[in-house]
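In line with agreed milestones, the collection of sequences with tokenised folds has grown. One record among many is set out beneath this paragraph:
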Amino acid sequence: MTKPEFTPLNFELALKNNLTMEFDADILIGKTDNIHLKVDGKRSEMYKEMLLNDPLGKECLQDISKNNLYQKACYKMLLKAHAPDYFKGTLSYKDLKNTDEAFIFNLYELLESWYDWEKEEDVYKTVDDGKLEIEAQAFYYENYINYKFTSKFGEVSLNNVEGMSYYPYAMSFYAPLSSWELARNWFTGYQNLPFCAVDNNKVWTFSGRSYEYNMTGSWHVVMVDEAKDFGNELLILAKRPEQEQAEVHITYKTRTGKTLEIILTPKTYQVISNAKEICEDGVSIYYDDVAEQPLVEYYSIRGGFDEIQVFSINNGAIRLIFDNHRLVLFTDDHRSTTRGLCGQSTTEIRDDFMTPYGLVDAPQLYGASFALDGEDADPKTEELKKEAKLKAYQPVIKYTNILRSDAQWSKVANESIKKQ
């Protein structure tokens, strides 16, 4: 499969890019025969217009106007924008046995019992024997697909075949998640592989809280695992000493004793590890030979004016995207025990107000609570951090009474009305 080489973090830029993809596969049948499938996909102008008119698309454009490219609306629109909706290809085959033809017919009968469609046939439109031409136009917003199959027997059109809402996500090609992971993420409300974005002046947490915060020249804890999930130690720090110029420092240690340090700046990146280094197809890898899995895989992709660095740590447990200004994280592990700008990853937004000093409501104070002290600390951030310590309050757990009858509930309700 040839995926798009250009993967921007900017939804507007993604629409300007003419999205195309190629799929090429050989399916072996028996010892000598095979079926060769080649399909080209692209995003149509019709689908592009629908993306622009999508309410989420308009919300995303408002975020982009403030240089926030990776909030929830933009993330969803980026996935949709990287999904081709028009496909055309050829399936080439040699003589099929009667059993193979029977299997194909039975499969068609099964699909027909599951789905409703409008069928049209034209026996005069044919192609050479040994070839099947396939054409499909997906209508993602209307949830249906039109198919056209042309063989030596003629042309069959299956129109208005029922689709599903997750189809554009399943068809999307967008790093660092696979199409299968994107579809599964949609089913789980983006909590199978939740993401956090430290954007221009907004942060989106793993649990779905969005708050305004301008990261400064002070080092900030973006994500730290306090419980050392599964014996793995994780710490991600970031700072923005200059506008549009961020720096990231990542340390990771596995239970097998493998260590990893990643240092990212706008101009350079450095990876230090005691694991074995290899390189495959333009992807640099440090391999954990004890756990028998990659410790880190990383590569660069074009994303606009700058290259985007993509990292996958501990076989995909943590994945990150860095474009010199903003940092995006996806997590498969490290749930409920993390702290930092990205929150606790408990799926509960209310948990993302807790700081080392207690609950903090004000977004700027919350963000400053995770700034580190030091010689290079930003003075304004230091002041906000002191204010956060003073204004933080401790959570109080109150247990509700268990009322076992309607009469008890009515009594409580009446007492509440009298107090008002």
The chain has a mean pLDDT of 88. DSSP finds ten helices and 24 strands in the chain. The longest helix spans residues 98-114. Residues 232 and 366 are 26 Å apart (CA to CA).
